[in-house]
Amino acid sequence: MEIYLIRHTETVCEKGICYGQSDVNIAEPFDVIFDEIISQLPSEAIIISSPLKRCVLLAKHVQNNVKTISYQEDERLKEMNFGDWELKNWNEIPPEQLNPWMEDFVNIRASNGESFVELHDRVGDFISDLFSKNIQNPIVVVAHAGIIRSILCHQTSLPLKEAFQNKVDFGQVIKIEL
Question: Is the pTM for the entire model greater than 0.85?
C-alpha cells in the first residue's frame, strides 16, 4: 500500500506554544508551499485528512489538484490531545506536570489529555482499517507530526520512546509502503 504522509504547513501560533488538538490556522502565504507539496504526489489518490483546519486547507488543495478517488476526514488523525496545556507556552506549564511527561511522554498523559501510546493506539486502529479495505490506489494522508511519527513507528517497529528520531518538518511529504 503506497502512502504519502504530509504534515500541515506552519501555523499562526508563536513558537513555543502547545497547540495539539486546538483548531488553529496556518500561516500565509501558503500557495507556493502547497504547490511544492502537490509536485511530490501521484496524479491520482485517495485523500484522508485530520479534521483540524490546518490539515483540511491543505487536503482540499490536494483534492483540487489531483484526481481524487475519494476524500474523507478522520478523527483518529487529530494531533495529540494536550488537555489543559492546549494553547499555553511550554514554559508556562507547571514543572510538576511537564517534567514527568517529558521523562515518559509515551505512557504519561498530558494534564487532562492523552499519552503518546493512546495516540498510537488510535493510529493503529486507522491503519488496520486501511488494511481491511485492501486499497490498491495511492493514499495521501494529511496530518500532524505526532500522527506521522506514530505511523512511521508502526511501519518500522521503532519503539515509541524513539519516535522523535523521525524528523517531520512542516509541509514535508514522506512516501512509505505499508
Answer: yes
